[in-house]
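We emphasize that the prediction below concerns an isolated chain of 316 residues; any contacts that depend on oligomerization or on bound cofactors are therefore not represented. The input was used exactly as deposited, without trimming of termini.
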Amino acid sequence: MSRPLLRPRLVALSAVLATALTGACTDTASRARADSLAAVLSATTTERDSLQGLVNGNAADRDRALAQVVEASKFADEVDKELRQVRGLSSKVGVNTSDESGKTEAAAAQKDILDRLRQMRQRLAARQAQVQKQLEELKALREDSTAAATLLADLNARLAQRDKEIAVFQDEVRQLRQANETLVAEKAVLTDTVKAMDVRENQVFYTVGSRRQLLADGVVAEEGGSRGLLIVKLGKTLVPARTLDAARFTMADRRQTLTIPLPRPDRAYRIVSRHDVGLIEVAKKEKDGSFRGENIRITDPSKFWASSKYLIIAEK
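Result of the prediction step, given as a token string:
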């Protein structure tokens, strides 16, 4: 058999052999394909023997290919070792809902892991390309290199499996990062809600004015009294209106607003709402509960505003 006639058949045989060795026979279709390939290999045994002379002439190429196999095997072991180290960092990427420093450390660990995984995948891609090139070179050697080709195919499959594992690991880290970002966003919303509730809880309202002004604004009403000379009803008492409009009041924070100014220091005032006059300090207090001064100072905001959020002070 001449060499020109052997070359096409040898290339075809090598392609079939490499295809069979790079896949695992794990299902019915794969096993059937393996049986078919076994028949092909049996039928070509005689032809392979006839190529032995050509194989002997390629000893240097065979040695070089085997050295590349050893190098690829070492690289696969290094990948396994580094992947185990990266997996060991996964314990540092847990979400801690109460520890800010813990979340910072988790985010840093996540970034470190993703960077390492990206670098490993780049190295794997480069090495896989080299292994594939070596497989092609082995096909062209026309020698009995079944063991070397099998080992390279196994190594290539091993690297491909590691690449899949790293991809899955990357997805897990990304999902964890996304969960962490979601938690941070939820915490921000919760913080804003708590702040808003805190503001509403401590929000109070006050108004100071003359009797006529307070009646006109609808924040007070008159009750009681007696009719004098059948014309005027005397002794009417001011009380807070049943419905109070916050727009008629000055809004304040009871934790910060401890002093409320009085428009006219020369006039006497009294509290119309249910607030305790004993919890304020003024320049002068009268026995009937009225007072004078430039302002009132609230001594105990918590107790003072407990009775009502609306403080009404009327000029006497």
